[in-house]
Amino acid sequence: MARTQLQRARDGEVTPAMDRVAERENCDPEVVRESVASGEAVIPSNHAHDALDPMIIGAEFGTKINANIGTSETTSDYDTEREKLHTAIEYGADTVMDLSTGSNLDSIRTAHVEHSPIPLGTVPIYEAVKRAGSPEDITVDLLLEVIEKQAEQGVDYQTIHAGVLREHLPKTDGRVTGIVSRGGSIMAEWMEAHDAQNPLYTHFEEICAIFAAHDVTVSLGDGLRPGAIADANDAAQLAELRTLGELTRVAREHGVQTMVEGPGHMPLDEIGDHMAQQREICDGAPYYLLGPLVTDVAPGYDHITSAIGATEAARHGAAMLCYVTPKEHLGLPDDEDVRDGLAAYRIAAHAGDVAAGKPGASDWDDAISAARYDFDWRRQFELALDPDRAKSYHDQTLPDDTHKEARYCSMCGADFCSMRIDQDARGDSMADLNRSVDLAESAAASVNLPPTGTHDTSGLPTVSAAVCEHAENAIESDD
Ligand code: SF4
């Protein structure tokens, strides 16, 4: 049986995936192997995902970003999903989770796996609910069947809410927002209905056996994550976190690559301590956070409230950040929301990496700052996190080609451009400025540069036409 990246790393093998990751992260392959062997990093890479360009998730590497996409009961248009996947990859998502709960689940998932160069994650309990009709009608056999089928389809990581235990549920009674995780609320309803323990917990070793056979990375879901800052770090959240630590050790014993999911909503000043607590309880397992949102008052702007928390989390060792879009709490995100959410999270991840002093992280900043001071507008656009938006905003007021040579923009105007005034005042002493930037030699050149984020998709199939065609064919043959 093919072994997992974790098992091979423990045996001292540097796999082709580890070599590729080392190339992308600009580090020694042995560093990658050691991180995977220790469980402090994971390379989600299902044996059946042939289109995958391997990447790594771990605190000592560049902070990664996940984009959630997927249909809902009310919005299940495949063309929209295709565009979201395309947009997610184009604007720098490192992984994508298909959280579809609408129709054609298999077809969409298969199409995503077939053409996506980035890892695909799922939450199998959603499909189990859809097939069972309601949470209480889910059976253990159905759960295991769905998990195994998705593993066979090539899903690289699956979120399993195995840490929500019966004894944790009363601890949520005093909360402002109760249980806000979809997976957590489904498992709570099942446990109440059956007066029994969480089957994902009681059958966790069987699930691990499935994951080990396909090298599916388990993402231990935080079903009791706080949904309001008042609920952050409460007894329910921390009780579940301790269970996630226990499950981390079980999964690793089975050779399963493991990461742990985190909140949610949390005041800014609590994030650092919480990160340290997770690291200790879960033996350094990569922490994958949703935000966290640092305030609850800004629906419509929660890509910003959460990016603030995500930056702090990245500074304190978050391995991956699950993006939040402006539609959080309000509705299903569309293509433009995906773009805005990803931009916010690439900023958070990069700012966190800069603040954490990761090698080469600030080289990108130095390069664009130099271009800015040089009035090299084309280079500035090229280096911008979202080049299209930077150029279009500039061109709204100064659209002509001659304006690309201008020593000002419309913000301050020609007479009051401080950089132009500064340069004129310096005259010959301009050469004294310390502005040496060799981006080509930097880790930033291979890890962070736009427009594809941390992923080199050159040479890989573009998602658009191929995915659409495949999915449409598959959907036609779906029941
Ligand atoms: S005009 Fe103002 S904003 Fe524009 S380049 Fe000059 S200093 Fe910067």
UniProtKB/TrEMBL annotation:
Pfam families (alphabetical): ThiC_Rad_SAM
Chain positions covered by the region annotation Disordered: 1-27
Known catalytic reactions: 5-amino-1-(5-phospho-beta-D-ribosyl)imidazole + S-adenosyl-L-methionine = 4-amino-2-methyl-5-(phosphooxymethyl)pyrimidine + CO + 5'-deoxyadenosine + formate + L-methionine + 3 H(+)
GO MF entries: 4 iron, 4 sulfur cluster binding; phosphomethylpyrimidine synthase activity; zinc ion binding
NCBIfam families given in the database record: PRK13352.1, thiC
Purpose: Catalyzes the synthesis of the hydroxymethylpyrimidine phosphate (HMP-P) moiety of thiamine from aminoimidazole ribotide (AIR) in a radical S-adenosyl-L-methionine (SAM)-dependent reaction.
Name of the protein in its database record: Phosphomethylpyrimidine synthase
Organism: Halococcoides cellulosivorans
